[in-house]
Specification:
elongated, alpha+beta, 418 residues, 14 helices
Length: 418
């Protein structure tokens, strides 16, 4: 409408331009915080769920003796509880860090026959590999003197390919050359969880630990729509069998992996909401002043035929339109920075691509419209209900009570006008 176009044009003139720019910047910052929080929360969860499917749906991870774990797997197959599993021989060793102190490490034996492009599994039971190791750099170990270390440990302790590390087992030291980095979904990533994990060939594990090993297995439950309750029931049944020493569910692993990111998401969302609330108060306080400083502009529009309802609408709409431009820019900015904020994942798994989720755009649009409408509706009504004469005059008209007070004061007419 012509009235709205005129007021929007006037917002870009003189001192009005600074107010418009300030509102735009505040909207960009507020919506960028909210959008990045929304996209980090959904992006990290979606990324982990995709890895869960890609690695064969490791619903349960069980640990125990080299005889108990295979027996537990066989019983679960017989009962129809699982439809695939992979078993890994493991040993617990000490691993020195460049900083000095040693950390506990689980050495995992990789079966070279399960090697795939970029990943490798343990000994598959039931024909399908579950819980495949995700290779992040380098290659898999092919000789007894080689090791692939946890990608989180490589970052935390600055290990590079080709470095020689020493692992200790029962007071015996073994030197191994780092040939790659990798992660798996058996627990959260180092250093958020310890012990860290290292991956060696079957010959390498035998050379270090001999027969003093235990077994870890990843199990995929039967059925396409496995729920949290299904995993809990299967975990309880496996522990009740007495064949294994411990079990972790995918739900617990997923929660651990997302914990750091969710804490940061809370901070981002809180920042964005705080800025929006501050915007509500700021716009509400400045809008009253803006109505007075721009009363002549609005009075002229009213004099040429603008109705009070039109003025109320355009005062609200001009703020909302500026806010929506800021929301669009904030959505783009938040979407671009969100992949960098996947704390706990971006270093280990690499940076994801921006998603530009339309749902997050819709959410911030609704928030911006609500905040700016609530902030400007009262001053807009004031602008729409003032008389044309008072709006065009040199100063806003005083209330009847104020006029009575001024009439009783011994002041000159010019002093009263001031």
């Amino acid at each position: 409408m012509p009235v709205l176009r005129t007021l929007l044009a006037l917002r870009l003139k003189g001192r009005n331009r600074l107010g418009t720019l300030g509102l735009l910047i505040v909207m960009v910052l507020a919506t960028a915080g909210v959008v990045s929080a929304l996209e980090v929360r959904s992006g990290t969860a979606d990324r982990l769920d995709a890895l869960y499917v890609e690695t064969g749906r490791p619903d349960l991870v069980i640990n125990g003796g080299p005889d108990g774990v295979p027996a537990a797997i066989e019983a679960a197959f017989a009962e129809g509880t699982i439809d695939a599993a992979s078993a890994f021989d493991t040993a617990f060793v000490s691993f020195p860090t460049p900083e000095g102190p040693e950390v506990g490490t689980t050495l995992v034996s990789l079966d070279a026959t399960q090697e795939g492009e970029g990943s490798v599994g343990g000994t598959a039971v039931g024909g399908t590999a579950v819980g495949e190791i995700i290779l992040r750099s380098g290659r898999l170990p092919s000789a007894a003197g080689e090791i692939v270390i946890d990608a989180g440990a490589a970052i935390a302790h600055d290990y590079d390919l080709g470095d020689v590390v020493t692992v200790g087992f029962r007071e015996t030291a073994h030197e191994l050359t780092v040939v790659g980095t990798a992660v798996d979904l058996s627990r959260c990533f180092y250093p958020a969880c310890s012990p860290l994990r290292g991956y060696v060939s079957a010959d390498g594990l035998d050379a270090i630990a001999g027969g003093a090993t235990y077994t870890r297995a990843h199990l995929s439950l039967a059925g396409d729509d496995v729920t949290t309750a299904d995993r809990q029931r299967a975990a309880v049944a496996l522990m009740a069998s007495g064949l294994i020493d411990g079990v972790d569910t995918w739900d617990g692993t997923r929660a651990d992996l997302l914990l750091t990111g969710r804490i940061f998401v809370g901070f981002l969302a809180g920042f964005g909401i705080f800025v929006l609330i501050a915007t509500l108060l700021m716009v509400a306080s400045t809008a009253f002043g803006a109505v007075d400083t721009r009363r002549r502009e609005m009075g002229m529009l009213k004099a040429i035929g603008a109705t009070p309802r039109q003025l109320i609408a355009v005062v609200v709409l001009e703020h909302v339109i500026v806010g929506l431009v800021g929301a669009a820019l904030g959505w783009v900015l938040g979407s671009l920075i969100a992949p960098r904020l996947h704390l706990g994942l971006v270093d280990v798994l690499g940076r994801a691509e921006p998603t530009f989720d339309p749902v997050s755009l819709a959410i911030v649009v609704v928030m911006v419209v609500f905040v700016l409408t609530a902030a400007t509706i009262s001053p807009a009504r004031r602008a729409g209900t003032q008389s044309t004469r008072s709006m065009i005059g040199d100063a806003p008209s005083a209330s009847p009570r104020m006029r009575g007070l001024l009439a009783r004061l011994p002041l000159s007419p010019s002093s009263q006008l001031g």
